[in-house]
Amino acid sequence: MQAKVGDRLLFRGRTVGMKDHTAEVVEVLGEDGEPPYRVRHDNGHEAVVIPEADCTVQPAE
Questions:
Q1: Is residue 42 classed exposed, middle or buried when 0-12, 13-18 and 19+ CB atoms within 10 A define those classes?
Q2: Residue 46 confidence (pLDDT)
Q3: Residues 6 or more apart from 28 whose CB is under 8 A from it?
Q4: CA separation for the pair 29, 2 (Å, rounded)
């Protein structure tokens, strides 16, 4: 997986009742666009994530 600042990560709900959600990449901590990423969720919470296989990148427009 490769992402850049401004891209959004789409996290798929993994259990019943868990909804899909997105977060904006605010910093790429790996080399050449690789994880980990610092992301900002829609509620303003920031976290460092290493996305799993059920996560996809939505390129910035």
A1: exposed
A2: 97
A3: 3, 4, 5, 34, 37
A4: 11
Query: Helix or strand or coil: residue 31?
Result: helix
Per the structure, the count of domains in the chain is 1
Looking at the domain assignment, is residue 2 inside a domain?
A: no
Residue 10 to residue 23: CA distance in whole angstroms: 7
Residue 54 lies in a domain: yes
Please list, in sequence order, all residues whose beta carbon lies within 8 angstroms of the beta carbon of residue 15, skipping any fewer than 6 positions away.
none
Instruction: Give 3-47 pLDDT, tens digit per residue.
Output: 999 999 998 877 777 788 899 999 999 999 999 999 999 889 999
58: which 2 tokens? Answer: 């939505």
- Non-local CB neighbours of 6 within 8 Å, separated by 6+ positions: 24, 25, 60
